[in-house]
Amino acid sequence: MKLSLPIPSLCHLCGLRIDSTMGHHLWCPHCHRQMALHIKRCRCCGLQLETQADKCGQCLKSPPPWHQMYCLGDYQYPLSTLIQQIKRQKRYWLLPPLAQMLSDLILHPAPMVVTVPMSWHQYLLRGFNLSEVLANEIAKSAPQTQLMPDVFLKHARSPMQKTLDKTARLRNVRQAFSLRQRPKASHVAIIDDVVTTGATVRHLSELLLDVGVEKIDIYCLCRTPK
Known about the structure:
Elements: H1 29-33, H2 57-61, E1 68-74, H3 79-89, H4 95-105, E2 112-115, H5 120-126, H6 130-141, E3 146-147, E4 152-154, H7 166-176, E5 177-179, E6 187-195, H8 199-210, E7 215-223
Parallel strand pairs: 1-7, 2-3, 2-6, 6-7
Antiparallel strand pairs: 4-5
Helix pairs in contact: 4-6
Organism: Vibrio barjaei
Protein name: ComF family protein
Pfam families: Pribosyltran
């Protein structure tokens, strides 16, 4: 009689064998610990704090236009590697556990979530908008949360933010996005995969405030450290 042995699951990050303690077979406990999910962060900008305060000095001095930012960790290994595998290699199956981990951090979910759009040629090039896919996963894990698509419009002729420095990003983003329709809620969360300087979510938040939205949160997988 020929016995068939199960094929072991290997970590998508380090390649080592995975046991069953993670609840999935995508990455191992060692790589999970490197995600540093419990580091103290400023509740407004999402950057790491060296003290036990809720907000950093910059946000106390000049608060952003949103109420709170939720993120899993810094945009560095291993989270950055997982995000690049999703974006460039279309490994969509890596996203649901990341989305669930993010949802678990949000104590009071917004009743409506909106996404950061892509221009049509960026969408054709990649084939999907990670912000939208992430939003769908979060909405599925929070039944009281509704996804409202196409709230913002991305203008095709504006340069990509990642090609610009901080000053140019702030100037470019005001020409890159406009409001297409007003969200049907007073408390809204903007979902993006990675927040770098915060210029994009700042401008989108200002657009929402201009049409009467009262409270805005930011949900993102990663925050780029200073």
